[in-house]
From TrEMBL:
Keywords: Metal-binding, Zinc, Zinc-finger
Name by which UniProt lists this protein: MYND-type domain-containing protein
GO MF term (any one): zinc ion binding
UniProt cross-references to InterPro entries, sorted A to Z: Znf_MYND
Chain ranges passing through the membrane: none
Native source species: Chaetoceros tenuissimus
MYND-type domain sequence ranges: 292-342
Record's keyword annotation contains Transmembrane helix: no
Length: 406
């Protein structure tokens, strides 16, 4: 009799199967790796279907134990949050989190530290009030005083680095650097924290702190930059923490900041290094090919993408994502928005379309692009009156075998 009722139960819910954790993990991985919109939607759909199926199972626990249901629900919800966060769906992250908090006591899913952090980061992206900032800080401090257990988990490290970027974006440079230094100590072999820290120093310098900086700044800043770049170029396994765009723009800025030295030859070499790296950055963006410049999702063939009317270069999956990076954060975690990149991208696109031609027009557009790159560094980013003096960088530049910075 018992057997019979079990069979009929199974038949009744055949339309809502719980996906296996393995199949979801695989899908999750693929969606993250490719940033493919179709895969993302598929994964989100499966998770939601899975949660629905679990709900039905919960009321009839013949096949699964309560503990199993609980664990599965928790994993599904946590992965959904991560997924939505990575595609910049900040509203959804908060919504999922709130749904969990609102569910009845016996259905509540315990969330990991990482998810609490993601939720707080999502809140900050949407509403950068001081209350949110305080909550984020206390969350991180609790974790640090706890010994940052599980920091070696890749996802967890990634969340912390994201927190550094966000703090920086909010101009909380001291906090960003303090957290970055702690991460550097914990993740000695990784290059991610070291790189983010170098960017924090650079951003602080650029945002007007340079007047208060002591004379050791160039060395404190240039050495870590050089170190991070060396590790990046040699790709020691963790370089995927860093996006190529941020790397190119950092190298470009470092070279430019040193170019006002007395030695004319070295000076022009540093300047052309800087311009070359801005162009390498633009090339990196050029090959994004139909991906959203904010979330990196690749649209499907039938999806209409928005193209910036200024440069006709930058694509976006939605108006929301275009707005999100207009003023800042167009380059991961830097206070550089598309606003100042737009004329640069326009010049690049114009040149790129005729770059194969060997004529006067191509040459003219090429010169114009070079000028735009230099202007972007000197005026766009405002580096022209922040360059180091000869005496500041002498020790650094000439203590190396090579004369050029990078
Ligand atoms: Zn997008
Ligand atoms: Zn544009």
């Amino acid at each position: 009799m018992g057997k019979k009722s079990r069979r009929s139960n199974r038949k009744g819910r055949s339309s809502v199967q719980i996906p296996t954790a393995d199949s979801l993990r695989q899908l999750n991985k693929e969606a993250f790796k490719s940033h493919d919109n179709r895969l993302y939607s598929e994964a989100v759909h499966k998770y939601e279907e899975g949660l629905e199926a679990i709900k039905i199972q919960s009321s009839n626990t013949i096949d699964l134990s309560i503990l199993e249901i609980f664990k599965m629900k928790s994993t599904f919800s946590q992965n959904l949050i991560m997924m939505e966060y990575s595609r910049c769906g900040f509203d959804r992250v908060i919504q999922i989190y709130n749904d969990i908090q609102m569910s009845p006591e016996n259905e509540k899913v315990p969330l990991s530290f990482m998810n609490k952090l993601q939720r707080q980061l999502a809140m900050l992206r949407l509403d950068s009030s001081s209350e949110n900032k305080d909550q984020l800080k206390s969350l991180i401090n609790d974790r640090i005083s706890e010994g940052m257990k599980g920091y070696n988990d890749y996802d967890e490290m990634f969340s912390f680095l994201e927190a550094v970027r966000l703090l920086r974006n909010l101009k909380y440079y001291d906090e960003a650097i303090t957290l970055g230094e702690k991460l550097e100590r914990l993740d000695e072999n990784g290059v991610g924290a070291e790189f983010e820290n170098a960017v924090s120093h650079l951003e602080r310098y650029r945002s007007g702190y340079h007047k208060q900086t002591d004379s050791r700044f160039p060395n404190n800043f240039l050495l870590p930059v050089k170190d991070a770049c060396y590790k990046f170029e040699n790709g020691n396994g963790k370089a995927e923490c860093i996006r190529g765009d941020a790397y190119m723009i950092m190298v470009a800025q470092s070279n430019f900041l040193c170019h006002q030295i007395d030695n004319k030859q070295h000076s022009s070499q540093l300047c052309s290094n800087a311009i070359e790296h801005v162009e390498r950055y633009l090339e990196w963006e050029w090959y994004l090919d139909r991906r959203c410049f904010t979330c990196l999702q690749k649209g499907t063939a039938t999806e209409v993408q928005l193209v910036c009317s200024g440069c006709r270069f930058a694509c976006y999956c939605s108006l929301d994502h275009q707005r999100m990076t207009w003023k800042k954060d167009a380059i991961q975690g830097m206070r550089i928005g598309h606003e100042i990149l737009c004329p640069l991208m326009k010049a690049y696109r114009k040149w790129r379309l005729v770059s194969k031609e060997d004529n006067e027009r191509a040459l003219k557009l090429r010169r114009r692009l070079d000028r735009e790159c230099a202007y972007f560094l000197s005026d766009g980013l405002g580096l022209k009156d922040k360059c180091f003096q000869e005496r500041d960088v002498q020790e650094f530049l000439y203590s190396q075998n090579t004369c050029t910075l990078l």
